[in-house]
Design brief:
The structure is a single chain. The chain has 163 residues and is mainly α. Helix content is 56%, strand content 2%. Strands 1-2 form a two-stranded antiparallel ribbon.
Length: 163
């Protein structure tokens, strides 16, 4: 559904044009939701991959604190590994992070305490406050069933879908 985003995204700041039909509004809302989730996944994978692949941070560490000590410890440990082991670590981290995201989406779809209602209120549409349904949409796949498609369309880090 990348085409849907291309059709209704007005700029790179998240401003959207409103689709005509409620069905397209729901599809667009789900697509921007999925794109955002995959972007967050990619950011965290990028951080992990940097630690595994690079013995030095891209930018120098600003101060000594718990975060910098962990960064140094990871880099010192990982630089001793061969490239095949590093690739397996990255594969494990990718599978784990993607599995965590998949399981979270399953819990949204099958929430034990009732129905979760996730909606998108676009930033600005003709000064109206609209809500576009993301969850509990009639005739649409569960969110977790869309994750592979979102990863395929938007991920720069996940090579093979882990779900």
């Amino acid at each position: 559904m990348k085409e849907l985003l291309g059709k209704y995204a007005q700029d790179r700041f998240g401003n959207l044009k409103s689709p005509e039909s409620d069905e397209e509004k729901q599809q667009l809302a789900r697509e921007v939701f999925g794109k955002n989730l995959v972007s967050i996944l990619d950011d965290w994978l990028g951080t992990a991959f940097d630690l595994v692949d690079n013995s030095e941070p891209i930018e120098p560490l600003v101060r000594a604190n718990e975060s910098s000590r962990k960064d140094i410890a990871f880099r010192e440990t990982f630089k001793k590994l061969d490239s095949q082991t590093k690739e397996k670590i990255k594969e494990l981290v990718t599978d784990t992070a993607t599995g965590l995201l998949f399981s979270t989406l399953v819990s949204f779809d099958q929430f034990d305490y009732g129905q979760l209602k996730i909606t998108l209120s676009p930033k600005k549409i003709d000064n109206l406050k609209e809500e576009w349904q993301i969850t509990n949409t009639e005739g649409m796949l569960d969110l977790h069933d869309e994750l592979d498609k979102w990863i395929e369309n938007y991920s720069k880090k996940v090579k093979n879908n882990a779900t």
